[in-house]
Design brief:
Oligomer: single chain
Largest sheet: none
Number of strands: 0
Strand content: under 5%
Distance between the termini: 28 Å
CATH superfamily: Globins
Shape: globular
């Protein structure tokens, strides 16, 4: 359960969030499409104990990658073309919480509703509103989707940092990959023509 009430803009579980247009039963079908099962839930939850004290180091890697790609960091830039440092910092706090929420693997209605909110915040429907900034109006879907690779690939050394057996590390890595695919698919709802999701 997300307990990050002190993180600005983190509305996980807020009654004010709209209900996800994807039902829990539809999400369960999506999990089956991704071959995501109970063993993946268990692997994600094992990863929580490994990653919970490494979130800042993970974020350093991820933010370093985004900062090295002008077309990616442009999503945080205002009219002057410069990234908004306050915006980057606020998103970083929520991104750190996202790592923990992903590793907890608690798939209830509150989680599903918040995934829809995350998608809206990347899309022009709600981009910039949470933080009251005037940055780029959308995170392009191609960038959002393709970030699955650097996010999951760079996570592997962190998952291996406690010396778990290679097969245990691989199981956690595969669970993270499937979870990211599922989450970005949920986030894509705002980007897909109505009736086509």
């Amino acid at each position: 359960m997300n307990t990050a009430a002190s993180i600005p803009g983190d509305q996980f579980g807020a009654a004010s969030l709209p209900r996800s247009p994807v039902s829990l039963s539809e999400f369960q079908a999506m999990q089956r499409s991704a071959a995501f099962g109970a063993e993946d839930v268990a692997a994600l939850r094992r990863s929580y104990e490994i990653l919970k004290d490494q979130t800042e180091a993970i974020l350093d890697v991820w933010y370093g990658f985004v900062a090295s790609q002008p077309h990616l960091v442009a999503a945080f830039a205002g009219a002057d073309g410069q990234p908004d440092a306050g915006y980057l910092a606020a998103v970083r706090k929520r991104f750190g919480q996202w790592i923990l929420d992903t590793a907890r693997a608690e798939y209830d209605q509150r989680w599903l509703d918040y995934q829809h909110e995350i998608g809206l915040r990347h899309h022009r429907a709600k981009k910039n509103r949470t933080d009251g900034v005037a940055a780029a109006p959308i995170v392009r879907f191609r960038d959002l989707f393709l970030l699955i690779f650097p996010v999951t690939h760079t996570l592997r050394p962190f998952l291996a940092s406690r010396g778990d057996l290679p097969q245990a590390v691989e199981a956690m890595f595969q669970a993270w990959l499937k979870s990211c695919l599922l989450q970005v698919t949920l986030w894509s709802h705002a980007y897909v023509r109505e009736g086509d999701f």
